[in-house]
Design goal:
By secondary structure, this protein is an alpha+beta fold. It has eleven helices and 24 strands. The relative contact order is 0.14.
């Protein structure tokens, strides 16, 4: 028996938020009830492989584009993540002769990006919206719960089915035609079971949303506190090169692609907002002297030096010896290192985070299409530099709040994993669920 088969709805409670635990729906709500064999058999017998045409009807409403009108435009995000709301388009500025009206409570997908899981069910309160004719819409039959299909759109099984229905020659030329979509065969439970699954998953989703909202609120408080502490007028103002040891990395070159001292190095693609992505770390030749100059030490802060995207300029993350030394860095990054007796690594980290959050890095960056901070401008930035003992106090306060934010994010991530396993188990019936109304 799998672990999932032993999970009850009550087990989805988290120890810190029992008031938003998944509610039990009557005495028959257990996910694993081995005593109700007859009831379970009724539910199992209702699952029959059927084409989607049994549950959905093509229901496209096209409108002629009026050059004197403005049209609120939507798209569909991949992996079943819902609608993408775009800026309204003036009828006089578009080449489209017709647009599809996207109504509330319909299933819609992108014919062009269906293979990426660009499918969703529109919310019931969707305001007037339109999309190109690459977005067919479907009405639901009386055997279908729209919210169940909204949840189904977030699953790997739906994305795989769309990939299988894609036709065309390569990548972006592939499309899923409505007629092919409706012939996809899936096991869909009876309506009462659909509704019961929606109750369970929506309860978990509500808890995830509450955790996300709490984490966002804590993050905002953390940012305000960091801004207050980093701009405290009681601290002396100095140039950045007096507070930190700032170095730009070494330039990549073809002749360094091989050599006797191949060394892992980080580049801007590895640095995010407070995080490092080490899934794709490249190597190039750094001789022993260069390893000394460009080598990373625990507590160094790496800052993205430039990017075509303004939001990426100045993104900082601390290095914590995630990869055994030696590890170096490229000139798409600036390395901020604490100076003994002047600054401490944790304060350097929080100052760089503040400089990114406040837009100070972007303010000093030069360039038109691609913004660059550059070592000269980085060295010339102004820093409110408290005494080292005050830096330790400030860093401890900010680190403590950062840990609370991280713990809340981790709790939400754990619950997302629970949701994914729970939904997969419900859909492949390794987890039994009884409908509130077993008249199936």
């Amino acid at each position: 028996m799998s672990d999932w088969q032993q999970i009850s709805l009550g087990d989805l409670e988290t120890p810190v938020r029992r008031e938003v635990a998944v509610p039990l729906q009557g005495s028959g709500a257990s996910m694993s009830d081995t005593t109700g064999h007859n009831d379970a058999a009724l539910v199992q017998n209702g699952w029959t492989p059927s084409p989607l045409a049994r549950f959905l009807t093509l229901n496209v409403e096209s409108v002629e584009v009026d050059p004197d009108q403005s049209y609120p435009i939507v798209g569909v995000l991949n992996r079943g993540r819902g609608l993408l709301f775009r800026d309204p388009v003036a009828g006089s500025s578009t080449s489209y002769k017709k647009l599809n009206r996207i109504r509330p409570g319909v299933l819609v997908y992108s014919r062009l990006k269906a293979f990426e899981g660009a499918i969703t069910v529109t919310p019931g309160d969707l305001p007037e919206s339109f999309a190109s004719q690459e977005f067919p819409t479907f009405a639901f039959s009386s055997e279908a719960d729209p919210d169940f299909f909204r949840i189904l759109a977030t699953t790997q099984r739906m994305w795989a089915a769309l990939q299988g229905a894609s036709k065309g020659m390569g990548g972006r030329r592939e499309r899923v035609k409505p007629v092919d979509f409706l012939t996809i065969v899936m096991e869909i439970p009876p309506l009462p079971v659909q509704q019961r699954i929606v109750e369970v998953i929506d309860a978990v989703d509500a808890q995830i949303a509450a955790l996300d909202a709490e984490a966002d609120a804590l993050r905002d408080v953390l940012r305000r506190l960091r801004a207050d502490l980093m701009t405290d007028g009681s601290a002396d103002e100095v140039l950045a090169d007096e507070a930190f040891d700032i170095t730009m990395g070494r330039q990549r070159s073809p002749q360094r692609a091989s050599g006797p001292h191949m060394t892992p190095y980080l580049r801007s693609a590895n640095v995010g907002y407070g995080t490092l992505d080490l899934s794709d770390v490249l190597e190039m030749d750094f001789n022993p002297s260069e390893r000394e100059t460009f080598g990373l030490r625990y507590g160094d802060v790496l800052v993205s030096e430039g990017s075509a995207s303004e939001t990426a300029v100045g993104m900082p993350a601390m290095w914590r010896d995630e990869i055994p030394a030696p590890v170096c860095f490229q000139n798409t990054l600036l390395r901020y290192r604490a100076i003994q007796g002047v600054s401490i690594p944790a304060f350097v980290k929080h100052w760089c985070l503040w400089a990114y959050e406040s837009g100070k890095f972007r303010e000093v960056a030069g360039g038109t299409n691609i913004k660059h901070i550059g070592s000269r401008r980085a060295l010339g930035m102004r820093v409110r530099l408290p005494h080292v003992t005050d830096q330790e106090r400030i860093a401890a306060e900010l680190d403590s709040m950062s840990e609370v934010v991280a713990a809340t994010r981790a709790e939400a991530a754990r619950l997302r994993e629970v949701r994914a396993g729970l939904l997969a188990g419900l859909l492949d019936r390794t987890i039994d669920i009884k409908s509130a109304d077993l008249g199936v």
